[in-house]
What we know:
The complex is a heterodimer of chains A (277) and B (304).
Chain A: H1 7-35, H2 56-62, H3 69-99, H4 105-116, H5 121-133, H6 140-163, H7 168-176, H8 181-210, H9 213-218, H10 226-230, H11 241-261, H12 266-270
Helix pairs in contact in A: 1-11, 2-11, 3-6, 3-8, 4-6, 6-8, 7-8, 8-11
Chain B: H1 2-9, H2 20-46, H3 66-73, H4 76-106, H5 113-120, H6 122-125, H7 128-139, H8 145-152, H9 169-194, H10 198-206, H11 211-222, H12 224-239, H13 243-248, H14 260-270, H15 274-299
Helix pairs in contact in B: 2-15, 3-15, 4-9, 4-12, 4-14, 7-9, 9-12, 10-11, 12-15, 14-15
Membrane topology (chain A): Multi-pass membrane protein
Family (chain A): Belongs to the binding-protein-dependent transport system permease family.
Main location (chain A): membrane
Amino acid sequence: MARSETFSGRAFGYLAMLALLVVFIGPIVWFVLLAIRPADTFFAMPPVLRFQPSWESFRYTFVEPGNNLPQLRNSLIVAAGAVLLNLPFSFPAAYALSRYRLRGRKHIMLWYLGLLMAPPVAFLIPYSILASAAGLKGTYLSMILIAQTLTVPFSVWLMRSFIDEVPVELEEAARIDGGGLWTILTKVVLPLVTPGLIVTSMFAFVFSWNNAAFPLVLANRATATLPVGTLQYFGTAGVTWGFIAAAAVAAMIPPMLIFLVLDRYVVRGLTFGSVKG
Amino acid sequence: MTVALSLAASPRRRRLPAALPWLLIAPSVLLLLALILFPLVFALKNSFYFWNLQMSPVPMGYIGADNYRMAFSASFFLGALRTTVLMTLVGTAVEFLLGLGIALLLLRNLRGMRLTRVLLIMPTTIAPIVVGFLFRYMYDPNGGLIPWLLQSAGIPLPAAGLLGSSSTALWAVLFADVWQWTPFFAIVLYAALLAVPEDVLEAARLDGASAFKLLTHIKLPLIRKTALIVVMLRFMQLFNTFDLVVVLTKGGPGASTRTLGYSLYQAGLVDFNIGLASAMTWLIVIVVNAIIGLFVFFAFRDLD
């Protein structure tokens, strides 16, 4: 893009940029405004842009009576639990798939990838019934366990791309020094791939946080996660839009912050490490 | 120095057992197999039984292939397959093309472009179910922003609203998906285009290649692999869509937005017909596996 541009070319560029922001960020702003609007302006025509911000929707959803506050905590428990349980399974696998020329390595990688593309809805009914049969229905454990079908394959792929970047020579030096596999993994590899582990874990957190399908059939009233809990506002006498927006905005914030922090790695995370970005 | 010393100290270099890498992989594979095979076997068995969960907590009688017959005869499956394929093909194509256009814009050296790029990905970070809430609000026929904008522009709208009319509902659902996922294509394709070497482009320019030729003959072939990967990932996600439909239209009006994912959801979790749902599970798993196989063959042939 070294060539100098004409004035009209630049003007077009800025207009297009503005249009992008209006189209892709505008709806988010509009939804956030819904959460702080007075109820009589929810559907005012023409739309009302000037209003006295009100925290009533947030107060109702998260303070008094605060029905959504336990759901926020549930979302955190399930997503954090899913990430923590996933690490001891995915890290060794990612390491082995990065370091060893195994027969069938490609097929194993593709098998994990296939799981990421499997239709979650196909598993909802069996999981729901099997969880009941196992006495796990409504528990955090059931949601954390089932989330592994997403977090483990995702983390293996993404983590492997980070381990690939750690020079193998360091491990070989440690091996020649007589280090066993455990020592090499914990003293050499782990410290070097910690940044990759953190990035992977944060994306896996988002993955699990945003998944509504599994909690929809596994949670009960006490363990419902935030997106599922938000559904409660539909179907009662009229849709209470302010409360939906307040709860949904709270659900939107953690993934957005994580993506802002991980800006450099967003492309890699979204493509499971297959595009470096 | 240390290397030499330790070599001398242990002349027989410790060799790692060949089974070791497999031991490292095994826990994840076993866990996933357990989580996948149980439900699949469970569904396979129940697909041959009549079982309505509202009537009985256990299967109510062996009925052979009736569930499969029903899935096909009620045009439940084929109709939904048609809707799903249409939505998936159009959605993936539109998102790819729009994303490519935006990626080219993001490459331009304008003030504020970096910030725009960082903000642009925000729709993709939102849970699909929340995107459903967001668009249901914006589509509301009584005071929603989108009908208001369209009407102000003089575009006539169906009386039942964009989501309530069978001629527009599918496109309205798809629009929400396009809004959420076009940034995904834009950001990934931007990253891929950024890696196209400038000297290659410069050489082509000197040869008098137009901007369009530059794109179709040089840039696109060079980012082919990345493009295939993102198209594949998105294609499958779109094919599996159901939560957006649950929130926006519940498959309606009529069957106009009943995707495969939604009809399965409806059979099992709305009508509690576990037998039918199980048969559909297997039909969907077979279709999805066939598509994944095809894609993987083309996109990941040279995976190392």
